[in-house]
Amino acid sequence: MKSIVKFFIIAGALMLTMASCEDEYGPRKESTPVIESATLNPATLTFGDSVTLSVKVTDPATMLTTLVYDVVSEGRNIVSGEIPLVGNDYTVTKNIFVPLLKDQADNANVQVNLLARNILKGSTSHEITGLTGKRPVYNQLYLVTDDGTVAVLTPRQDDKNKFEGSDLTLETSFRFKIAEKLHADKTIDYSGNVYGNVNGKMAMIDQSGESFFSYTPEADYTKMLVFDQMAFSVTTTGSNLGADDFALSAFGEQDIYNETFRTLTRDMEQGKTYSVFGRLADPQNIFNPDFFERVADNKVKFLGTSGEYTLYYNPVRKNVIVGVENPAYPDYLLACGWGLGYPTHVTSAEIGAVYPGHNRTHTNWGFGHVMDYVLLRKISDGLYQGTFFTPGDHDRYAGFKPFENTGWANEKKAGDFTFSGEMIIKGTNDWTIPNGPEDPVVEPAFYRFFVNLNEKTVHIEKVTL
């Protein structure tokens, strides 16, 4: 009997011992992973590019869990990550972006530290050595502001790591990124290196990164910018406006038609070229084409008669229109009604997102403000020119008439004129672009009207701006 009891006691002890060596993963087996091979390709890498990490890890006794990697150069961790492992035999192939850090030396030694783990916390480490990191070499870089201005930065003769842009016409405060490559439409190509803001400091960023901010004190505009690609720093130099310069720092602010405008009243000289700065130099801006010729992104030539004018810049519509005090015949005709708008490349949807219910067309039956009507400028005796966006892209309708002044004087009825060119106008009283079910569809576009009061003719051209 004692022997039987003794047998069960020993058997129970053995079962307890076996149970204590098991957990949710099954019987415990003490083991460590083995890193069979590990390479980084290319061995001579360029900071700011991607490399390929290839690692084979095995552990025949225990399931693998993770591979941790650290890319180190000159005692600094450049990039780290963790890769999940599956099974007992796993080969990792992973692309890793190796950024350029501030003050990173050229031809620097690089090392990759690896740590493989299994589910029982067994681990092994490995080092990939014999790697070299080189700094990127740029022939030029691009300064791209959030307002759409693009400027070329070229390396300085005295320091290849410093890139300079001069003769700039930027605002005194602006947000920007610095890019290695651009697309054809001058937007940033993120397949190249891009620098922006990371926690308040300049650093490499991807497409989701933020713009950096710069401010140039005690100046009217920013004339020069230097990007130190070694120190990851930006310095700017400012300047003051001349008599023939325009920058928003000299503009006031006014609400018109429930929209916010920047305004400036000053004398303008026919045939004179003026420099425009900052947001005014945005190539998407349209300067009233009946009064200005855009000779460069940052230069406009005035076409109107010399005198005092008010410039109205709309930062949402991105256009500059021209107003005069009490416009009247014989210097001007005024068209008011429905379905005309000063030209803009901004869509009705974009305008309406800021100003609900507003569209690219904006005229009304009235002369209360500069958005109610549009001006036709006299280009010779009896001949007037006006360039408008019409009809509305939301309703494809327009109905308007030119007048000689803001008092409804001497309206010009459609039936009194012979029309040529783009035959978009119908009617005998109002100048109408109809949108009835039997009417031809008129494409909303930029149309230039030439109204000849001498010969009672109107010629209409579709134009590209």
Would you mind describing this structure in some detail?
- The chain has 465 residues and is mainly beta.
- The protein has 3 domains: 26-134, Immunoglobulin-like, CATH 2.60.40.1930; 141-239, Immunoglobulin-like; 245-463, no CATH class.
- The chain is 6% helix and 48% strand.
- It has 2 helices and 36 strands.
- The longest helix has 19 residues, at 2-20.
- The protein starts with a helix and ends with a strand.
- The model is unreliable at 1-28 (pLDDT under 50).
Output the keywords.
single chain, 465 residues, mainly beta, Immunoglobulin-like, nine-stranded antiparallel sheet, eight-stranded mixed sheet, 36 strands
Stretches where pLDDT is under 50 for at least 5 consecutive residues are: 1-28
Q: Give the rounded overall mean pLDDT.
A: 92
Main β-sheet: number of strands, strand sense, barrel status?
9 strands, antiparallel
Rg result: 35 Å
Describe the global form.
elongated
Q: Quickly count the domains.
A: 3
Backbone structural class: mainly beta
Question: Secondary structure elements and their pairing?
Answer:
Layout: H1 2-20, E1 22-23, E2 26-27, E3 34-41, E4 44-46, E5 49-58, E6 64-73, E7 76-84, E8 89-98, E9 108-118, E10 123-134, E11 141-145, E12 150-155, E13 162-165, E14 173-179, E15 194-198, E16 201-204, E17 212-215, E18 221-228, E19 233-239, E20 245-246, E21 252-256, E22 259-268, E23 273-276, E24 286-287, E25 292-296, E26 299-302, E27 307-314, E28 319-323, E29 332-338, H2 348-354, E30 373-380, E31 383-390, E32 398-403, E33 418-421, E34 431-433, E35 445-452, E36 457-463
Parallel strand pairs: 4-10, 20-23, 24-28, 33-36
Antiparallel strand pairs: 1-2, 3-5, 5-8, 6-7, 6-9, 9-10, 11-12, 11-14, 12-13, 13-18, 14-15, 14-17, 15-16, 18-19, 21-22, 22-27, 23-26, 25-26, 27-28, 29-30, 29-32, 30-31, 31-35, 32-34, 35-36
